[in-house]
Amino acid sequence: MGKVSVKQRIQAVKRYLNGYETMLEIAKDIGVTVQVVSEWVRRYQKNGVETFLKPYIKYK
């Protein structure tokens, strides 16, 4: 899969946070690594949906 859309990223994070799927299952489903999903979840938990709506900024 090519670039993952903002909508897909948010859906992936919510799928994980709902607790029904593992990061590995989600990563395989959308064609990214577990590390990528983990980073999305971390950013989402720290900054909310806005983290995906702006160009990537390294938050501290």
Report on the architecture of this protein.
Helices cover 63% and strands 0% of the residues. With 60 residues, the protein is mainly α. It is globular and about 25 Å long.
What share of residues is helical?
55-70%
How many H/I helical runs? 4
The helix/strand class is: mainly alpha
Q: Helix and strand string, N-terminal first?
A: HHHH
The main sheet comes to: none
Mean pLDDT: 89
Shape, per Cα inertia axes: globular
The CA-CA distance between the termini, in Å, is 29 Å
Beta-strand fraction estimate: under 5%
Our Rg estimate from Cα atoms comes to 11 Å
Uncertain segments of ≥5 residues (pLDDT<50)?
none
Beta-strand segment tally: 0
Q: What's the topology here?
A:
Elements: H1 6-17, H2 23-30, H3 34-47, H4 50-53
Helix pairs in contact: 1-2, 1-3, 2-3
Structural features:
mainly alpha, 60 residues, globular, 4 helices
Question: Quick recap of the structure?
Answer:
The protein is mainly α. The chain has four helices and no strands.
